[in-house]
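Batch manifest, entry 17 of 40.
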Amino acid sequence: MILNRPYALLAILVFILTPITAMSVVFEPAQSQEAQRSTQSPAITTIASVSNSFLNETSDSQQTAIQNETVNYYNNHSGYLVYPISNQNQNNITNASATTQAKLPGIIMIHENRGLNENIKDSADILARQGYVVLAVDLFGEVTADPDRARELSSAVRNNPGPAIENMKSAVRYLGTLDNVNASRIASIGWCFGGAQSLQLALNSEDQPLAATIIYYGRLVNDTAELSKIKWPVLGIFGDQDDSISVDSVKAFGRGLNETGITNEIYIYPGVGHAFANPSNDNYAPAETADAWRKTLEFLKKYV
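Output type: structure tokens
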């Protein structure tokens, strides 16, 4: 069933929250069941279809032209690079460094356990239209729809995290070399497996500091000695019905960030489970997804 646009817009209009104080764990108000459970067929739905509805109503971002290309950024690993371009450059783009004189903030985007698929590329496009140069990395070298293969691929990274960490750090270095990127304003974002990797990148970037870290329902680290390595703001998005990431672990994560003095915004949405922001997932919750995107864009604007 195609997402009922009036419900999506209504959810966005009524979901105006008072400002949230950073460095606290916040439970978000529940949506009405009708707004919360409006769904689309996974065959025709991407994250862009719901998020763009919100963006269309709040900015002129859809008027922004973007250019994408496949780039080699680490040991023959190719990623999806996408960035905004000016009107005069639309017809003669050859590479990212030639597109614009202004230096833009950059984002390293990290995929879920299905790999660098169209859903992730759509998400990268959304952020590019907001004025960011986005490099969606590839930690697997393949895309899969098979849950067993997805578990194998993600388990291999967790059991041997070194190569994935070097992959992401190389992506940061690559992005920082582009002429249209401000190397001091690079953030990371990831969902599920990618959320955990976004945190791992933060924990291993002391020599190459980031501007911000965004984690959507990824596995967490609560040890304050580890967390103290992070010197920049952290945004966390979670659901209280997540069987993989418990509310207790999210609270402990928030406490650890607070104890180490790390600016953070941690949100827990009631009634939604793991991967609620993925339209192809059974737990998909469009109203919460739209609000999480709003929080993400506001966080990036504030800190990156």
